[in-house]
Amino acid sequence: MQKKNKFKVVSVSKSRYILPSVLTLIGVCLGISSIKFAMDGNFSLAVMFIVIAAILDGLDGRVARMIKGTSEFGKELDSLTDFVSFGIAPVFIVYFWELNQFGRIGWLIVLLFSVCCVLRLARFNLTKFEQNEEWKMNFFQGIPSPAGGCLVLFPIMYELSSFSAFFQIKNVSPFLVVLASILLISKIPTFAFKKIVVQRQMTLFLLLGVGLFCVSIIQFTYETMAICCILYLVMIPVSIFNYRSKLKNSQNEIIEEDQRDIL
Asked: What predicted TM-score, i.e. pTM, was given to this entire model?
């Protein structure tokens, strides 16, 4: 008796490629939906959707590497999603919130950020490292697009938090968007956090930190988001110093190897 073949959307050997792509597609849906909420004046939910999309963007690549589900299709899909979710959606939210008050200048700032984001993504896709430069994988050239998208939303996060009772920063939105645009296309090294090694004795403190962060993001949502943006900006000089230190050590190792080969 002939057995009937069961219908399968994807073969078992290829099923591991689905989960990272699903996370990526959820991210682009969140990014597009955030524009709709911004048009309706619901900026709190619009900002929340972008932050969740940024978290998913950080997870999809790591999930793909953990389950060995990386693919060229996934890489291209991730770049296209990043442009929509972080190159268009955040700056549109800021435009509906404040930049539209500046007329054509405000729209020019929107275009500037989007163009810088797509240039940054194109450069990232073409970035390759030699075998002796694998340490550079821990750094980005310029800030990544999710970080840029969150930084331009910082004034909205601040206004939605209790910090706004002290002073207003709404008018700095155009300058912050321009700054984020410059950082996107710059070659300033920033931490990538791709290969983080946690020592066993530090695991408990890591879990404690994650727990405290979850509690703070639930109880003080926009205050926590605003503080995270400030901390990220503060970490940029630290990443520059760390990059230069590692670069110097790498160059010294190359010189030592050349000297040994000559001898």
From this structure: 0.85
Q: Give the closest residue to 182 by CA, choosing from 236, 247, 241, 251.
A: 236
Domain limits at 174?
Answer: 16-252
Per-residue pLDDT of the chain (263 residues), as tens digits, is: 445 555 444 444 556 667 778 888 898 999 999 999 999 999 999 999 999 999 888 887 777 767 666 677 777 788 888 999 999 999 999 999 999 999 999 999 999 999 999 999 888 878 776 666 677 778 888 999 999 999 999 999 999 998 888 888 888 999 999 999 999 999 999 988 766 666 677 777 778 888 888 888 888 999 999 999 999 999 999 999 988 888 888 777 777 776 666 66
Residue 60 is part of a domain; what is its CATH number?
Answer: 1.20.120
Helix (H/G/I), strand (E/B), else coil: 156:
helix
Residue 97: how many other CB atoms lie within 10 Å? 20
